[in-house]
Design goal:
636 residues, alpha+beta, six-stranded antiparallel β-barrel, 35% helix, disordered C terminus, Integrase_cat-core, RNaseH-like_sf, RNaseH_sf, Integrase
Length: 636
């Protein structure tokens, strides 16, 4: 608390700095405030000094006797004793950085632990640290006549103060030194300068994957009217949740043992697309009043993108394709949290806990939260009975549970539901949002990837140009007639969910057209993962495919035979079945690079034609009127 005289000094200094910022003369400032003109600029510069909280000092620097910089000793160490040693230990650490590095390493290795005492934090293990500190001083060339070896207690109290200061620089370092297993509250500052606090919806979203705690079964139809069910592995639930409103923006169920970068991008794609509620077949299952997804309840949130994307350090999250789509297509920042710190993403972790309590742990076949969970033991006692939860039923239950979660009041939102919170920001506050560009909405294919290849062929042997891509040959009518392209490098864009067609560009970025797979591979839709599985089984001689057999159907039959023996085979069989069932009758080629516009496609159409193709032109070429509709035109 400042005295009355100190308050008068502070007010005079504050007024002097304010007048100096208004560019008044120094003599006029001195006449008005009484502050000497020679000290006005020094007070102004003190206000600009950084504070320990990360901001500038501001008017705090004008408080009488307030220090804006830590004390730095300039004088050399005098005679031994306790007097005249202010700042000498800090000076020692500055001269020998190895000593401070020793203190930091001992704290990180937990050889020195911070405990809470009655009068403040205390250090456990200080004696051993002091011995190692003195040994390092001798190794650095200090003698018994030098500080701290010359002191009576050899600097142990200064070492304790320095170790406490280093351990308590931040809450993270203090919690680590105290061996805390949980760090709740607050936010971690972002090193990239991107927003670390969600001030409105779509500022920050969190992503994570969770293995559903339920044993499941799938059903295959062997003969017409006869069904056979098999156990499958536990599935992954990938979810994106908005931090400000707690609303789930999109989710994806993955049947693989581990989710891949393609599954992450599929979740991103589903969070951007407008949501359509799936049809419900379970009797009595219905959505709660007002339930749904943000993009379905608020059409203006369709294709809305976020500013920050938080995830953990899983390999699928850190893949190049994942980061490329997030930064280049979505246009957001990607923030990977520290290892083994789920509390850095508290909202998505809390959502998974809520979903498990209201859905997974209430279903037959639940695995509980661990091996000691009573619910797991109860299910294991009845392991001889078949589980009655099917995968299709779980998908419907998950859709209803997530839609109802968005319509359930949250205590952290003041009793509002996530959808009501979104309605407040969108309808009442009318916040500014970013949307995916219109050209990209028409070709929303976040799963397309780039692959480098070469055009093969031989003029001497009469082999027309083709491209080999993961064990299959691709060509088209236009590519097969381009002998000048043999041996040229190309860029291939493909969709991992259906690799029957590719889009090809030459080295200069000109589109060469769409090519299709040849042979039996073109009969049934399949993913890149399925083709690689088939090729691996063929190399291992576990799967035999004749010349005219459909490789995909042979692969499905192989998985069905092994579904009763291995749950992983049953999971793969169900995944492959859904790919074939949901595929479009005619495969669509990926759009290719974003910057490729219509002028690139015209170059492909203007490829040189051969005389024997029957398409030669004779006579003058007449121009045709273009039928370009009115509206906005995007130039590339």
């Amino acid at each position: 608390m400042l005295t009355s005289s100190e308050q008068e000094v502070f007010r005079a200094r504050e007024e002097a700095v304010r007048r100096y910022c208004l560019r008044q003369s120094l003599h006029a400032i001195e006449a008005a405030t009484g502050v000497s003109y020679s000290t006005v600029r020094r007070h102004y510069l003190r206000c600009l000094e950084p504070h320990v909280d990360g901001r500038i000092q501001g008017f705090r620097a004008l408080i009488p006797y307030e220090r804006v910089k830590p004390y730095r000793r300039l004088a050399r160490i005098g005679r031994p004793g306790s007097a005249g040693k202010a700042g000498v230990f800090t000076q020692l650490l500055q001269r020998y950085p190895e000593l401070e590095a020793l203190i930091v390493s001992e704290l990180q290795a937990h050889h020195v632990v911070l405990h809470e005492g009655a009068s403040g934090p205390i250090l456990v293990g200080l004696t051993d640290l002091h011995q190692r500190f003195l040994q390092l001083c001798l190794q650095l060339g200090l003698t018994e006549r030098d500080y701290p070896l010359v002191q009576k207690q050899r600097g142990i109290r200064s070492l304790a103060a320095a170790a406490k200061a280093i351990a308590t620089r931040t809450f993270e370092t203090a919690a680590g030194a105290a061996l805390a297993d949980k760090r709740s509250g607050g936010v971690r500052p972002d090193a990239q300068g991107l927003p670390s606090v969600a001030t409105q919806p779509y500022d920050v979203v969190e992503f994570d994957g969770h293995r559903v705690d339920v044993r499941l079964r799938v059903v295959f139809e062997r003969v017409a009217g006869i069904e056979e069910s098999f156990d499958i592995e536990r599935v992954w639930l990938l979810t994106i949740i908005d931090v400000c409103s707690r609303a789930v923006l999109g989710y994806n169920i993955v049947l693989e043992p581990e989710y891949s970068r393609f599954d992450v991008l599929k979740t991103v794609e589903r969070a951007l697309l407008p949501w359509r509620p799936p049809a419900l077949t379970i009797p009595g299952l219905r959505y709660a009043p007002g339930a749904g997804m943000p993009s379905e309840r608020f059409p203006e949130l369709g294709y809305a993108v976020w500013n920050m994307f938080r995830f953990d350090n899983a390999r699928a999250n850190l893949a190049h394709d994942t980061l490329r789509v997030l930064t280049e297509v979505v246009g957001c920042g990607a923030q990977a949290g520290p290892l083994h710190r789920p509390n850095e993403r508290p909202h998505i972790e809390r959502f998974f806990g809520t979903l498990a309590s209201v859905l997974a742990h209430r279903l037959p076949g639940t695995t509980g939260i661990g091996v000691s969970d009573p619910r797991r033991r109860i299910e294991e006692l009845g392991a001889g009975a078949p589980a009655i939860v099917r995968l299709d039923e779980l998908m419907e239950l998950t859709a209803v549970a997530i839609a109802n979660y968005n319509a359930h009041p949250h205590a952290g939102l003041g009793g509002r539901t996530p959808l009501e919170t979104l309605s407040y920001y969108v309808d009442e506050k009318r916040i500014g949002l970013r949307w995916l560009a219109e050209p990209m909405r028409r070709h929303l294919c976040l799963l397309q990837h780039q692959h480098e290849g070469h055009i093969r062929g031989s003029i001497a042997r009469g082999v027309r140009p083709y491209i080999q891509f993961f064990g299959a040959n691709y060509t088209s009518r236009s590519l097969a007639g381009r002998a000048d392209l043999i041996g040229q490098p190309v860029l291939i864009y493909f969709d991992v969910e259906d690799v029957r067609v590719l889009r090809v560009f030459d080295g200069g970025g000109r589109e060469l057209g769409v090519i299709e797979v040849q042979g039996a591979w073109r009969r049934t839709a399949h993913t890149l993962h399925m083709r690689r599985e088939i090729m691996a089984l063929m190399r291992e001689r576990k799967l035999r495919i004749l010349r005219y057999d459909d490789p995909v159907q042979c692969y499905l039959e192989y998985l069905r035979k092994h579904a009763g023996k291995r749950r992983r085979a049953a999971s793969k069989a169900e995944t492959a079945r859904r790919v074939v069932q949901d595929a479009a009758p005619v495969p669509k080629a990926p759009p290719g690079p974003v910057h490729s516009g219509g002028h690139d496609s015209t170059l492909a159409e203007a490829a040189p034609q051969h005389a024997d193709s029957g398409t030669g032109l004779s006579g003058p070429v007449k121009g045709q009127s273009l039928t370009i509709g009115t509206g906005q035109v995007f130039s590339h």
